């Protein structure tokens, strides 16, 4: 059974819009760094989706899944994303980026090296890390603000 929703949720963007705008600027900078590092828009969305899945953010998972589909992402790849490492759907770069994003999201001590296959260069490692960090912040805003997802 899913946890019950707290009754004391506050829309963070409405309470402190200036802070929300700064997070938006941070997000844009992370996406720009990703583009500069050669990380394509579809992979950016996959990273956002996977981080959102790990953080349990239905709002962001749905939002970025829809964005990924608009960019040409397939339903098959989205369906296996929670177990991406068991599939053959993802390229070496995608697998490395997803593994790194999971490591950053889970706040593990950087001991896991499954993602570190050499597929990502230092700029890409940094960009994926920033994308995961900013997506985690967005997940927390959505969850704490009580953004609900309905059909």
From TrEMBL:
Q: Which InterPro entries match?
A: AhpD-like, AhpD_core, CMD-like
Query: Recorded GO terms, molecular function?
Result: peroxiredoxin activity
**Alphabetical keyword list:** Oxidoreductase, Peroxidase
Indicate the segments annotated as coiled coil, or none if absent: none
Q: Where's the Carboxymuconolactone decarboxylase-like domain?
A: 24-103
- The keyword Transmembrane helix belongs to this UniProt entry's keyword annotation: no
Has the keyword Oxidoreductase been applied to this entry? yes
Highest taxon listed in the record's lineage: Bacteria
Recorded hits in Pfam families, A to Z, give:
CMD (PF02627)
Output this protein's name.
AhpD family alkylhydroperoxidase
